[in-house]
Design a protein that fits this description.
441 residues, alpha/beta, FAD/NAD(P)-binding domain, D-Amino Acid Oxidase, Chain A, domain 2, 5-stranded parallel beta sheet, 17 strands, elongated, FAD-binding domain-containing protein, flavoprotein, monooxygenase, oxidoreductase
């Protein structure tokens, strides 16, 4: 018979040997989980992270911005309409569909089309639409609030990404400047129009679309400007003509976000015109008098824009006019597949907002890429080399499908832009809606 002290000593030696063997194993064997980095904490990156998290696949999201506060996320922002086959399908798989619908009351699916003089050519109440609207801020909060805090690293700016070969295989080294360099087995570029990850895969860069835009917000529009609230309605409003446009969407705090679009050949128009150095209110006279801008438009739409610009300045004293060029990647842009890196969202297929496809394609990418990663991970367990080797051909298939899906949407977006910003865009858009919905409202 062993004494109690002898038994305890044997157990102690046994567990010490287990610890030693575990240390040796971890030293000679690679990590048992793939190192996955998602660059960008927009809808694409957050959706992908949520779907991987549901399957216990580790990852880190690196986001340039600091973590937004609740006050910042409560402010008016652009509205996004989500589509059944893409954005809504991704939310369903994330388990957030019901919570999403609780956040969609700020902008209805109603639509109105006006000519440059404010005459309404088409109006509906969204009866036939199945594309609910949510503010960008609300969608962002919905997504990141359901991720464990440790999975998102805020305030990291990616300076460069480079492929590297090690004794254990290929990896991607990310340079975060003062935060140092980190290596990963898979890097997903969800880092937007000017993606740093894209440079790993292709030399193609965005080009100027020929359109400049200005955004301003009217808070509490119903109580302060009831006649303008009636003009634009409860949902989306389009005033079009002479190759320009003024569009609005309703948003949080009874706001209206007014965006003016101008067809201009000069990519540097904000600086060459001097408008970039004006406040929104200071820019008002030039915008409303220049024939290349809104000079030939009627007083109704001019008043809408003037009120928005003055409200923008009142809400942000000293802030300069928010005027920017729109950029796009070439229709059908793609790249030769390379291991260890891929792109989703605007990083892969940046396009103008004329079809409302940007966020939907981004979330669709995330959904299908998550399926791809989960499939590879489930097939091989926790062996990294096997995971990467299994993932590589699946990733090539994902990218080929992505290129085909987005080429079709990019062609649609380009055609819509030609329609909206023709000489009589209002007539064209009203006719489009009438044909689509079958009757005048």
């Amino acid at each position: 018979m062993y004494s109690l002290s002898s038994i305890l000593r044997i157990l102690h030696l046994y567990y010490q040997s287990r610890i030693l063997l575990s240390s040796i194993y971890s030293f000679v064997m690679p990590s048992c989980q793939p190192r996955i980095a998602i660059i960008g904490g927009g809808p694409a990156g957050l959706t992908l992270g949520l779907l991987l998290h549901k399957h216990n696949i580790p990852f880190t999201i690196f986001e340039l911005r600091q973590k937004p506060t609740d006050d910042e996320l409560a402010k008016p922002s652009g509205m996004l309409d989500l589509h059944a086959e893409s954005g809504l399908a991704a939310l369903r798989e994330c388990g957030l569909y019901n919570k999403f619908h609780q956040l969609t009351g700020e902008c209805s699916e109603a639509q109105k089309v006006s000519d440059k003089d404010g005459n309404i050519l088409y109006s509906d109440e969204g009866e036939q639409s199945e594309r609910p609207e949510i503010s960008r801020h609300a969608l962002t909060k919905l997504l990141f609030s359901h991720l464990p805090p440790h999975t998102i690293t805020w305030g990291y700016k990616l300076l460069s990404a480079a492929s590297s070969t090690t004794p254990n295989g290929n990896e991607v080294v990310l340079d975060f400047g003062p935060h140092g360099k980190q290596a990963f087995d898979l890097v997903v570029g969800a880092d937007g129009a000017w993606s740093r990850v894209r440079s790993l895969l292709t030399d193609v860069k965005p080009h100027y679309s020929g359109t400049q835009y200005i955004t301003a917000t009217i808070p509490q529009i119903t109580s302060k400007y009831p006649h303008l609230a009636e003009l634009i309605g409860r949902g989306s409003f389009f005033a079009l003509g002479l190759r320009n446009g003024v569009m609005s969407q309703r948003g949080p705090q009874d706001s209206a976000r007014i965006s003016s679009f101008f067809s201009l050949l000069d990519e540097n128009f904000p600086s060459s015109s001097g408008l970039a150095s004006y406040t929104a209110a200071e820019a008002c006279d030039k915008l409303l008098s220049d024939d290349a801008l809104l000079g030939r438009w009627g007083p109704t739409i001019k008043q809408l824009v003037a009120v928005a610009l003055n409200e923008e300045t009142e809400g942000k004293p000293g802030a300069l006019l928010d005027i920017k060029p729109l950029y796009t990647l070439p229709v059908g842009a793609s790249w030769e597949h390379k291991a260890n890196a891929t792109l989703i969202g605007d990083a892969a297929h940046l396009m103008c907002p004329w079809a409302g496809e940007g966020v939907n394609l981004a979330m669709w990418d995330s959904l299908l890429l998550a399926h791809t990663i989960i499939r590879a991970h489930g097939a091989v367990g926790e062996d990294i080399d096997s995971f990467i080797n299994t993932l590589d051909p699946l990733l090539a298939e994902f990218e080929a499908d992505q290129a085909a899906r987005t080429k079709e949407k990019a062609e649609e977006t380009y055609a819509n832009g030609q329609m909206l910003f023709g000489e009589d865009g209002a007539k064209e858009l009203a006719g489009f809606f009438l044909r689509a919905y079958g009757e005048a409202q």
